[in-house]
Amino acid sequence: MASMLRIASYNLQKCVGVDLQRRPTRSMVVIRALKADVVVLQEADKRLPPRPAALPHDLVRKKGFHHIDFGQPKGSLGFHGNAMLVRPNIEVLDTSGLDLPGLEPRGAIRADLRTPVGDIRVIGVHLGLIRRYRLLQLGAVARAVRRLPDMPTLIAGDFNEWGSKAALDAVTPGFDFLATGRTFPAPRPIAGLDGFAYSKGIEVRDHGVLTRIPAHVASDHLPIWLELNHSS
């Protein structure tokens, strides 16, 4: 049995690149380059109702992924634009979508997964632009996690936090934030908006930001990845 799991997070910007071209196949080139078993996506659907998928379902299947169902509207890839793709070797045990507080509609997704390194809970988020609401949203995620059966947990996504993650850390007791590097804007990144936070029971082996072509133009965010296993 493999002892490593690779998880990635990527804000697709609805598959519209910094060149203002919507090219889902280009976005999928970036996703495949991550070589991840689990990919957490933000802005995976178009904004206006009925929020059709920006990354087509048939393209996802063709490239060897399954998208997880979070009770999203028919035709959408995710919940509030958050989506999660998994390889066939990942078993989905349980899922839920979580509405988050704030001035603008936001949500999070939660999937309990059986993986080559054991059972892991992955939560995908795209937090608000205003810090007050980011803190409320992460606090709601942390409370939701505490109501669930104990499981090693990873929060992944676009935290929209330009500065230190100390404020976010304060509302997520039991989680450590990873310094993942600069991801925004993709052509010349100056801020680490995208990140991971992990609970006890998870050991991060390696992590990084994908910068290879065409990631610098496929979205305004660069994707991030980490390799982990259960800590002893």
Describe this entry's structure for a reader:
There is one protein chain. The model has no long low-confidence stretch (mean pLDDT 94). The protein has 5 helices and 12 strands. Strand 7 (118-126), helix 3 (131-146) and strand 8 form a beta-alpha-beta unit. The protein has 232 residues and is α+β, with helices and mostly antiparallel strands. The strands form 2 sheets. The chain has a 6-stranded mixed β-sheet with strand order 3-4-2-1-12-11. Strands 5-6-7-8-10-9 form a 6-stranded mixed β-sheet, with helices on one face. It is globular, with a radius of gyration of 16 Å. It has helices spanning 24-33, 57-62, 131-146, 166-170, 215-218, and strands at 5-11, 38-42, 66-67, 83-86, 91-100, 106-115, 118-126, 153-158, 176-177, 194-198, 202-209, 224-230. The two termini are 16 Å apart.
